[in-house]
Design brief:
The chain has 97 residues and is an alpha+beta fold. It is built from 2 helices and 4 strands, in the order E-H-E-H-E-E.
Length: 97
């Protein structure tokens, strides 16, 4: 059976909202792995969420792979060229029982 993976997109909500989402997903029982995805200014929030969850709540959480990259975003209204935005994906997995 392949591990079931969930994705949480980190935006501009308070970090504890995402921490709660991670705890809820892992306590539901069927999730083995969660990937936090963030881009731009939300990257710092994603790192904070991963660290808060690991250090305060789920001590047996393991940091999996961390992938960084750049995404091309379409131009905003009034702009005439696309812009590049940094991205990060942090994978957290529950330690094997």
């Amino acid at each position: 059976m392949a591990p079931i993976s969930d994705v949480i997109f980190v935006g501009n909500k308070p970090p504890m909202n995402y921490v709660l989402a991670i705890i809820t997903a892992f306590s539901s029982g069927n999730t083995k792995e969660i990937t936090l995805k963030a881009r731009g200014k939300a990257i710092t929030t994603a790192v904070d969420v991963a660290e808060i969850t690991r250090s305060r709540f789920l001590k047996d959480l393991k940091l999996g792979k961390i992938a960084i990259g750049t995404a091309e975003m379409p131009p905003r209204e009034g702009e005439n060229r696309s812009r590049m935005v940094s991205t990060i994906e942090i994978t957290l997995s529950k330690a094997k029982e």
